[in-house]
Amino acid sequence: MKMEENEIYKGYKGKSLEVLKKFNAMIWCDVEVSTTNGDFIGLILPRSENADHEHIVLKLRSGYNIGLESNKILDIKVNGRKEFQYKIPEKEFPYSPKKPRVKLFGTGGTIASRLDYRTGAVIPAFSPGELYGSVPELADICNLETEKLYGVFSENMGPGQWRGLAEAIGKEIEKGVQGIVIGHGTDTMHHTAAILSFMVQNSPVPIVMVGSQRSSDRPSSDAALNLMHSVKTAADSDIAEVMVCMFGPTSDSYGLLHQGTRVRKMHSSYRSTFRTIGDIPIAMVDREKITPLRKDYRKRRNDNNVIINTSFEEKVSIVYYYPNMNPDIIDSLIDHDYKGIIIAGTGLGHVNKPLYPALQRAKDKNIAVYMTVQTLWGYVQMYVYDTGRDMMELGVVPTANMLPEVAYMKLCWALGQSNDLEEVKRIMLTPISHDITEREPSNGYLIYQGGIPEVEEFISKYRK
Amino acid sequence: MYDFEFKPFEEMTPDDYARVGFMSGLEVHQQLKTNHKLFCRCPAGIYSKDYDAEILRHMRPTLSELGEYDGTALMEFKTKKDIIYRIHHDTVCTYEMDDTPPFQMNEQALDIALEIAMMTKSKIVDEMHIARKQYLDGSIPTGFQRTAIVSVGGSIPYKDREIRLIQMSIEEDSCREASDIGHKRIYIADRLGMPLIETVTFPDMKTPVEVAEVNDIIRRLSRGTGKVRTGVGAGREDVNVSVTGGTRIEIKGVPSIKRIPLLTYNEAMRQWNLLRIREELHKRGITQETFSYKIDDITKLLHKTYYQPISKAIEEGLIVKCVTLRGFKGILTKKTQTDTYFSKEISDRVRVIACLTTLPNIIHSDSYENTLSTSEGLKIRKTVGATDDDTLVIVWGNQADAEMGANEIVERAREATIGVPSETRQALRDDTNGFERILPGPDRMYPDTDLPPKKITNERLDKIKSDVIKPFWMYEKWFEEIGVPEDLRRDLSGSMFIRLFEQCIKEWKLEPKLAATVLIQYPKRLKRRRLDIGLIGENEFRKVFEALKDNKIVKDAILNLLGKIIINNGYSDELIIEPCKNQELENTFKIVKEQISKMKIIREDKREKIIMGMMMRLMQSRINGKEVSEFVNSRNLGR
C-alpha cells in the first residue's frame, strides 16, 4: 500500500499531497482545477523530489507545465486518468559478418538516452537495439554488443567499479573482441582512464572511454557523435591504448583521442573539455577516418595476451597545497592510517616549512609521500631550490610530470601491490603508459590567450 | 463543396470569409527592454554582423515518445544541414554557445512580463516551470528554446467583443538567419537569448483585417509600459490561419502588422485552392491509395539540351531525375496563391528538404515554356512510358540531392490527394507565403532539467501591481471624456509620459488639449527644427509643466522653452522667462504705436498682423498671443 501511494502521488508531500488526496486526484489525472485565481485544465504531473510541498504541477494542453499553489485550490474535478508507461523502442542491431565486433560497457553515464516528455526524466538507452534506435550510424561501423556493468554517476565510481571494469575488459579481450568502448560520466572519466591504464596492461585492442557533455536527449548533444567516434576508434584504429575520446573543438567536427594517463577535464561544461596535458593527443577522429598525431602508441595485435592487475590500496589521499597550510592536515592523514599521500605542490613542487615536521612524521611512519605540481603542466623539479632538497630529505618523492590524479591512482595501485616503499617507488617512477614522459614537446603546452590579435585571427579562421 | 472562388483581396467581404470558414489566431512576440539577456548576463539589444568566430553544429532529432521521429525533426535531419553560428565576443558567451548551463532567469525581464500579463485579466501562474521547446532548424544552438508560462487565459477588448488569450510566456529569442544556401545555413547569434514575451490568442479573428487590428492592440498594450523594445525585429508575429476542411497553418516571423491582411488572405486562398485541387484529383479517381508515380534517371536523354540550368548541371556531372505523376495533367499550373501555382508547393519542398536552393530547381510538363523543346518533352514522355494524362516533374542535382528531390516531389504530390499538409510557412516579400518546414508535433515540449521551478510570490505581484500602467484602451476612453483631440489619442495612450499627463490633468488641472499637444506634437515640431528631442525626457517635461502650473511661464512660451532646453543640454531655471505684467503690455503698445505712426501701411487689412508681430517680437514668449491680440483690438489697432 505504501509503495503504491508513493507511485500515485509521486513527489508530492505535505500540503500539496493533502490537497490531492482531498479531491481524490493523483498523478496522470486529467483535471479541471478551480483556484482563487481562476480555473485551469490539464494533467497532474509527478513533482520533483526536491521541490517544495506547496505546489501541484499541471501540464496544460499546450504542452507547457505550470505550478499551482495548493493553498489556492478550491476544487479538483477529475475527468479521467491515463498512466503512461515509457519504453524505448528497440530495433534489432543489424549483424554483418564482415564488420569487427566491438563491446560497449556501461557504467552509468547517459551516453545514449531518451526523454520522457511528460516528466522530463532521462531514460538511458543502452541495449544494442536501443542504441541502434537512437544512433543507427553505429551499424555502419561494427557489430555492437553491450553490457551494463554499473548504473552510477561518475563521481560515485570507486575501487569496486574500477576492479570490476578491468576484469570485464580482460575477459572480453580473452574472448577476442576487436575493440572496447566504455560509456562513462565525464566528471571522473580521467580518473577511471588513469586506473585502467595501470590495471589493464599490454592490451592488444583499443580501449576507448567516452561520454557526453550535453545529454543525449538534446538535439545539440555531443553524445551521438562521440559515440560514433569512439566506436570507430575501437573498431578500426590500430591504437591499442586506454584512451579518452571526446570533442576536439566545441563544433561538431572531430574528436580527440587522449592518452588515458595524460588527459584531464578542464572546463565544467564545455564540449571540448578534455585536453591532453603536457603532450599532444594520440590522434584525431572523425566519422570517416582516424588521423594519428603521434607515432609512439602501442599498436593493435592479434593475440589475447592482456595483463590484468587490479591491486588497489584505498588509504591514499591527495593534498592540494595552499599557502598557510597547517601541518595538522598531514597529521590528520597520518593519524587516520593513510598509507600514501600525493601532494599537489606549488610551482616546481613546493610546500611551506611548517609542514616539514608533519612530513618527517609521515616518513617515520613509513607513509609514501609523492610530489606533483598543481600547475598541471610541467615537471616537479626539487633540485632547483633548497626547499625542494629539504623535502626530498624528508622522504618526499618527485613524480616528474605525472598529473596529480594520475599519481593518486598509480599510488593506490602500487601500494596495493607492495608495502615496501622502495618497491612502491620503483613502480611509481617506472612509466607504464605515458604517465611519466621523458620530454615535454614544445607544443605540449599551448593555452592560447583570448584577446591577443594573432589568437583572435586564429579563432576567426578555424571553427571553435 | 469547394465551388467558391477567391476574389481579389479588395473585393472579399466578411461573408466571403465566413463562407470559407476563415479562422485566425496570433502568436505575438515582443522583445523586452532589459539590460541583459534572459538566462545569461550578456548585454541585450546590441546588433552587429561582424563576428569573431564561427561554430559548426548539426541538429539531431531526438526520438518522440512513440519511438518515432517528429515530422519536423525528420525533415531537418533529412536536410543534413551544416549549421554555422557567427559569434561576437561582446554579445555571446559560452551560454549561448550551449557550452554552459543557464543562469537564473533575468528578474527585470520577468517583472516586465508580469506587468503586461496583469493588463489582460489573465491568471498569473503561482510557480513557473521552464520548458524546453525543440527547434531543429538550428535557430537556437541548444536545439530548444527555454520558455515558461507566465499567465494563462485573459482577454483583450476588440470592437464589441473580447478576443480570448490562451497564454503568455516568457522566452529567449533565437538567432538571426544570415543565409541558407545548399547544405549550409548561417546564423548570427547576437539576438540569441534576448528576453521576449509571446502572447497567444484563440483563433477568434474572422477576417484578415481583424487579425491585423488585434495584433495592433496586443502590440500597443505592451508598448504602453515603455519597457519593451521597438524598431525592426523587436515585435514579430506568427499568424495561424485555417479554413473549413483545411489545416492550422502557421506563417512564421511576420515582420510587420501591415502585411498581415494580405498574408492571411493568401494563406486562406492557398488552403482553399489546395482543397479544390484535392477535389479535382478525387474526381479523376486519384486518392491517397490509388496515387501512382515512377522515378527515372533521364540524364542521358538531356545531355544535348539547350535549357541552360540542366545543360550546365550535366556538364558539372550532376544527374537529372524525372518523376511521372500519373493523372496529374494540369494540376501543377493550378493557382494556389496570388500569381502562385501548385508547382511552387513542390519546388519549395525540393528547395528546403533536398537543399536544391538555386532556382528554378524543377521544371514540369504542365508548362515547359522557356525550358525544354517540344521534341525533348516528347522523347522523355516516351522513354519513361508516360501518357498524356500524366505530369512529368524534372529535378537535377548530385545523386543524393536529386534522389531526395524526386522523393519530395512524390511526397508533396501524394499529399495533394489528402488535403493541406501541416507546415509552418514563411512570409515572402510579395505577401504570399512559402514552405518553411513541417509543423512540429505537440511532443516537442519537455521540462528544463537545468533550472528549478520559480515561485512567483505575492509580494512581487503586489509591488508590480502598485505601479502597473492601465491598458491603452482605458486611457483612450478617458481622453475622449476630457476632450483630448482625436488625432493625439493613439500616440498619447502609448506615450511613455502618460503618467505625467495624468498628473497634469488630475493634480495640476492643466488643460488636456494643451498638455497632450505639448507631449505629442511639440517634440515633432522640434525635430523638424533639427533639434535632438532625445534630450527631453520626463524630467524636462515635468519642469515645464510645473512652471506653467505655477504661472511662471505662459503656455505660448512652452515650445521655445523646450527648444532652449535642448540647446542648453538640459533644463535650468535661467531659461524661464517670466510672464509680463499688465503695465508692460501697455508700455510695449506705446512703443509699437509710436513706431507704426512713422510707417506707411499700404494694406490696412494687414494692420493687425503687423502690430501683433511687432508686439510679440518685443515681448518674446512672455505673453500668450491671444492676450496680445485682444489687447490690440481693444485699443482700436492703435489708430
Structure description:
The complex is a heterodimer of chains A (464) and B (639). With 464 residues, chain A is an alpha/beta fold. Chain A has three domains: 2-81, SH3 type barrels; 101-308, Rossmann fold, CATH 3.40.50; 316-429, Rossmann fold (3-Layer(aba) Sandwich). Helix content of chain A is 26%, strand content 23%. In chain A, helix 7 runs parallel beside helix 8 (356-364). The radius of gyration of chain A is 27 Å and the shape is globular. Chain B has 639 residues and is an alpha+beta fold. Helices cover 36% and strands 20% of the residues of chain B. In chain B, strand 17 and strand 18 form a beta hairpin. At the A-B interface, strand 3, strand 4 and helix 12 of A face strand 2, strand 4, strand 5, strand 6 and strand 7 of B.
Number of strands of chain B: 24
Low-confidence stretches of chain A: none
Q: What gap, in angstroms, lies between the N and C termini of chain B?
A: 85 Å
Oligomer: heterodimer
Category from helices, strands and their pairing of chain A: alpha/beta
CATH hierarchy, class of the largest domain in chain A: Alpha Beta
Q: What's the story with the biggest beta sheet of chain A?
A: 8 strands, mixed
Give the overall shape of chain B, derived from the CA principal axes.
Answer: elongated
Largest sheet of chain B: 12 strands, mixed
Q: Identify low-pLDDT runs of chain B.
A: none
The gyration radius over C-alpha positions of chain A equals: 27 Å
The overall average pLDDT of chain B, rounded, is 92
Helix and strand content put the structural class of chain B at alpha+beta
Interface with most residues: A-B, 57 and 61 residues
Percent of residues of chain A in beta strands?
A: 15-25%
How many H/I helical runs of chain A?
Answer: 12
In short:
By secondary structure, chain A is an alpha/beta fold. In chain A, 26% of the residues lie in helices and 23% in strands. The model of chain B has no long low-confidence stretch (mean pLDDT 92).
